[in-house]
Structure prediction request, 267 residues.
Amino acid sequence: MSRVSEVLISKLIVETFSSRFAECLHLDVAIAGAGPSGMQAAIDLARQGLKVAVFERQLHVGGGIWGGGMLFPRIVVQEEAADMLRGLGIDLTPHEDGLYTADPVEAVSKTTAAALDAGATIWVGMAVEDVVIRENSRVAGVVTNWGAVELARLHVDPLALMAHCVIDATGHHAEITRRLLAKVAGARLCDGRETVPGEQPMWAEAGEAALVPNTREVYPGLVVAGMAANAVFAGPRMGAIFGGMFLSGRRAAEIAAQVVSREKMNA
Prediction:
């Protein structure tokens, strides 16, 4: 049997954590939020060989998928996203009108495994509380702290990690985009607005249709994805249908890869 001691256990945890965290000090893409759009973006970017880390303040990944619809453990996806989920090994049950249902636990588990297998790093219990800005008004990284520190409202200074691109996949509140606009004097989004209006009341069809067009680089170095995209551009909410989230994540990855290429050329 292996030798076990309390000190050795602590030593291994501290040393391996420190080593892994140090590897993330310089990233190609930092993703705030481990919901379906953030995880799909991580999969696609990591598969391209980019250095990607996902930061999730909760102790679990998956965002709103876990709850299905009002705690009924099923989610709905549409035909346009079906092949993406099948490609991750997620079992889909077909229904009328080109819709499918899936098990949320399977969807989260296989999406997470795919991101890790592709080479992405996923940090749980670690929140993005701010962004790093450079003199050319470009987002250049993320400011991180423990989710428990936020919850306890402790005054603990954060740590910063640099990134060529940041994806705001924080869901309905679009936290990263809101914080940037609140803290950077005169900051405007790509369409000239200075505020995030938030999502509109539920309209599933319109909300799903809006997600991919709303997935954009909204500020130099900052891309919005998933419900954060609809919040930024006042799209409707859509409830427990998740195909648009995965499609938005894929689009966010395409945009982020372009941003990384641009920033590396300008370096």
In short: Residues 6-266 form a domain with the FAD/NAD(P)-binding domain fold (CATH 3.50.50.60). The chain has nine helices and eleven strands.
